[in-house]
Specification:
The complex is a heterodimer. By secondary structure, chain A is α/β, with parallel strands linked by helices. Helix content of chain A is 30%, strand content 28%. Chain A has a 6-stranded mixed sheet, with helices on both faces. A 4-stranded antiparallel sheet of chain A has the order 2-1-4-5, covered by helices on one side. In chain A, strands 11-13-12 form a 3-stranded antiparallel sheet. In chain A, a hairpin with a 2-residue loop joins strand 9 and strand 10. The longest helix of chain A is centred in the middle third of the chain and has 14 residues. Chain B starts with a helix and ends in a 5-residue tail after the last helix. Classes of the chains: A alpha/beta, B mainly alpha. Chains A and B meet through helix 2 and strand 6 of A and helix 1, helix 2 and helix 4 of B.
């Protein structure tokens, strides 16, 4: 379980990038959304222990990640935007780097490479950016850490590779693992998400499992606008709306629509409906 | 710590091999000058500079690293710090000293001649007699202090920088060399000015006394350098343990 307790991070010039964020993130694959400059990457870096919070804390199974203790660091990994490898090939790197991660699965690594149509013996420095990215993804997903943080993982991937990434994440993410994916292109890995976190100007607007959200709201597309919509936007000849889910049965979520609604004037009403009932965790408590 | 060393196995091996080759080539060039009857001391000085630069730039081995990945590495900060320090301050100098003096003694043995090192030392003894210097250990210590100060400065720059680490490392070396040279020159000037201001006709004995009076100043300057090295070493540790990786 990942706990963010009143997490705040301010840069030296006084700019507050993360403002009093509190959330509990349960195991699963979570989508992190936010506008440009919302603080998504900063939040990921705080959760990885790369930055130290100005106040508050981030705990991984009760241990503060900012301590950078080896016992904590071997349970978390963040895929950086660009990476220099000290070895020629990803296999060579995996041989020396995976020693630090007891949860690394060679089997998963081999399978991931196969899914990405890679051999693992390619000269890393001679690969294109997209291929380097795939090579790294094949490795980091196989690390099997408790918390895996991916910042725009599908960037630079072709359609086939995005499909492969979906398979890889679905296969390699265990029931006790948490994967947080920050992305602007929500459709790439749409089927995978177990939870959604939405940041705006450093503040956490929403942190809920997708099934909870979909039990309370429905995303519909119709030729005429619904009467009692919470939010609506028009596109491709249809009206895409968010309405209250009267039945309580889970529905498919349109993450892009949800995000647009949260960035609009309908935010408060939408959050009121989503938060109207306690979460199942709170009910159990 | 060994596992951390494996991460840098490739770059470290390359740098040590390069160090050994350059050191040997410099030594061979000095011997060639001796053989050709040239001014071996001036050539030795130039070759010492080249070998010194290779020695001081050992930390550039770590220039091509991913700061995110190294910070995330599940190892204690003190282990990472020890690895960086031992490679820069022990491994690279050991290769330099081993190749230079090893080649020197091997060459002397093969040619039944005197090792170049002994030849220099014998001249040094003459200077020792002139200057009244009675503590060669002092000279060795200040040499270690100066070398450590330069190496640790480069290491700190390499650890702290996110980009252009090689260029910044080179500039750091140049800056610290200039600063230590300037400090020594200023110290010498101050002593000389105080001693010679009212003595326009300086005799050789007075010049020797003047140099003797400078040694306490050198002791102070190198004492400062020793403190500087310790502080920089601590800053390196702090950077590893508490440095943020923003991008």
């Amino acid at each position: 379980m990942i706990e963010l307790n009143n997490l705040t991070y301010a840069y030296r010039r006084g700019f507050v990038a993360i403002d009093d964020v509190t959330a509990s993130v349960s195991p699963g694959i979570h989508l992190l959304l936010g506008e440009n400059g919302a603080g998504k990457t900063t939040l990921l870096r705080l959760m990885a222990g790369l930055l130290f919070p100005s106040s508050g804390e981030c705990l991984i199974d009760g241990a503060p990640v900012s301590s950078r203790e080896p016992s904590v660091m071997k349970t978390v990994f963040m895929l950086p935007d660009t990476t220099e490898l000290p070895t020629k090939t990803i296999r060579g790197f995996a041989e020396i780097h995976s020693r630090f991660y007891p949860t690394f699965s060679q089997e998963n690594f081999e399978e991931n490479l196969r899914e990405f149509n890679l051999d693992g013996n390619e000269n890393y420095n001679q690969l294109s950016l997209g291929l380097r990215h795939k090579t790294l993804l094949a490795y980091v997903v196989a690390l099997g850490v408790d918390l895996l943080l991916l910042d725009e993982p599908a960037n630079g991937l072709d359609i086939t590779s995005k499909k492969a990434l979906r398979h890889i994440l679905a296969r390699c993410t265990g029931p006790e693992q948490t994967v947080i994916i920050s992305t602007h292109t929500v459709s790439d890995l749409r089927e995978l998400y177990d939870g959604v976190l939405v940041l705006s100007k450093g503040k956490l607007l929403l942190a809920r499992p997708t099934w909870e959200i979909s039990e309370r709201i429905s995303c519909v597309a119709s030729p005429i606008p619904p009467f009692d919509h919470i939010f609506m936007e028009q596109g491709a000849g249809l009206f895409h709306s968010i309405i209250e889910n009267e039945t309580g049965e889970p529905t498919d979520l349109n993450y892009a629509l949800l995000y647009s609604a949260l960035m609009s004037k309908s935010r408060d009403r939408l959050l009121e409906i989503i938060n109207s009932k306690p979460s199942r965790n709170q009910e159990l408590e | 710590m060994m596992s951390i060393g494996l991460i840098f196995k490739g770059p470290a091996r390359l740098y040590l091999i390069l160090t050994a080759i350059i050191t040997f080539a410099c030594y061979a060039f000095v011997q060639l000058c001796i053989y050709l009857g040239g001014n071996e001391i001036s050539v030795y000085t130039l070759m010492s500079l080249i070998v010194g630069v290779i020695l001081y730039l050992g930390p550039l081995t770590f220039a091509k690293r991913d700061a995110t990945m190294m910070t995330l590495l599940p190892a204690k900060a003190v282990e990472k710090w020890l690895f960086y320090m031992l490679f820069s301050l022990v491994a690279v100098p050991a290769v330099v000293q081993g190749v230079w003096y090893g080649s020197d003694y091997a060459y002397a043995y093969l040619t039944s001649g005197e090792p170049f090192y002994e030849m220099i030392l014998s001249r040094y003894n003459m200077k020792e007699a002139m200057l009244g210097l009675d503590n060669r250990f002092f000279i060795v210590c200040i040499s270690i202090v100066q070398t450590s100060a330069l190496i640790i400065s480069v290491l700190y720059t390499v650890l702290r920088s996110t980009r252009h680490r090689v260029i910044k490392g080179l500039l750091t070396l140049a800056a610290v060399l200039f600063a230590t040279g300037l400090m020594s020159a200023l110290a010498g000037f101050v002593v000389a000015f105080n001693e010679l201001a009212d003595k326009p006709d300086v005799t050789p004995d007075q010049a020797v006394n003047l140099l003797n009076n400078m040694y306490p100043i050198f002791g102070f300057v190198y004492g400062l350098l020793a403190v500087y090295s310790i502080v920089m070493g601590w800053l390196c540790y702090r950077q590893i343990a508490k440095g943020e990786v923003k991008a």
